[in-house]
Amino acid sequence: MSHAAVLVHDGRLPSHARDPDRMLQIDALTFNAWGRKFFDRASVTLPNPSKVALVGRNGVGKSTLFKLIKGELQPDGGDISIPKAARVAAVDQEHPATPVSLIETILEADTERATLMAELETADPERMGDIWMRLIEIDADAAPARAAEILNGLGFSTEDLDRPMAEFSGGWRMRVALAAALFAAPDLLLLDEPTNYLDLEGALWLEARLARYPHSALIISHDRELLNNSVDFTLHVAEGKLELYTGGYDSFEQQRAEKIRLQSATRAKQEAERAHLQSFVDRFKASAAKAAQAQSRVKRLAKLAPVETTIEAGVSPFILPSPPRPLAPPLLRLEHVEVGYGDDPAILRDLDLRLDVDDRIGLLGVNGAGKSTFAKLVAGALQARSGLMSRSSRMEVGWFHQHQIEALDPSMTALDIMREARPLDSDQSHRSRLAQFGIHFEKQSTVAEALSGGERARLLLNIVAMNAPHLLILDEPTNHLDIDSRRALLDALNDYQGAVILITHDRSLMELVADRLWLAADNKIVPFDGDMDDYARFVLDRARGGTSAPSQAAAKEKRRKRG
Question: Helix (H, G, I), strand (E, B), or coil: what is residue 339?
Fold first, then answer.
């Protein structure tokens, strides 16, 4: 399947024509690969239409299930079936860097419209009437407007529509692939981490779009808000099985917790009964008078089937030590500050901001508006061009940004990375810290390229906080973290006693950490008067054209974001 391909059943995908009310049916699916069992006679039926969150710990087989559904992998047993002639689309990779314009690329994703439009040029007069009738039925004239609306929601400007695909970087071409899949509106849409290449604004728009998607969708995501607000069901993958729950992620967690509670209560009751029966048998098995009763208890013991139990793996906490002594406020003061790169136009101008010792700042704004530039300025990696920037001379800053993960030396082990970060500490101390971070002994000598993205992110997040900084700057800290790890990060941030500047597309984390919001737009950063619900309404209204959008400030910053 290509970058955003739409497949109609053609023999590559299993099909059924038995029940149009079922979009996906999985029967006794078994799949083993790479020395492990992913699925063990797993079964589930998804209604049609339905939006379903596919959840489970990293590595349990969520993406593998997508490949099985698409026919890219073959099961060892069981069956996966979809309705005959169903159109299935998935976003697998970035769109190629072609000379075709952005808008034409999206329009081509509707293969029926594209085929009919091409056929118009050569069709005989009798056939042309049928073609025009079908084009009217599918509202073909409105297609460019629909495509532009989707692209706008995903962060593209009107000026971008006529640009060739070759001018966009990989991250933006991933957005194109997502836009193409949404525009094609397949019967079953498969989305694997669709918000990873989006900013918060794009994620908010996608959340609303999926909530009203008219067909079926199966979505892998670690974005709790998206999974709460966009789906009807939650499909949980664990221990080789598939289990369907009603509602979004919060509802799933409540139902699963209740299931585990009932299992524990049933198990405790059974264990008490087993102990009572065994005690009777042990006391009277040698007594002739009680022999029959003892034998009866033995039979009852044998009939006590073990209660199914759910194993909940623990999540290692994040270690974010608070600064030992608070500094006098403010930590940072900016007056009429301007910042940019080299001789290029300024990214941010006339910054007039104050950061206090206990501030929790959520930094909002579209990609390219200057959020990461501001983080570099505050972290000391970029100097102000003009204006006054005052900061405490004793302020310790911990700065995490997503490019640190990409910049890790792939040949260095986790232990090597710790040695480099704290060269004066002993290996015993390093190993103890790594274990606290959730990187246990067997992983400590593993090279970085063999660690998962989540393990690398966890390692670096903990390292930047090791010196108990007065200020933590976190620029997209959650990209490689699953939902449970994000919750662990939230708990650590809420316990941390220093100041925080947070840039994230995870709305839930932003809502629960930030107590003040700043908005980067139009070459400035200013306080945003409202909460995240207000900002979500602002973003969606702007996407509909009801509010003037903050510009993607400064061509230099935009080029940096797009490659």
Answer: strand
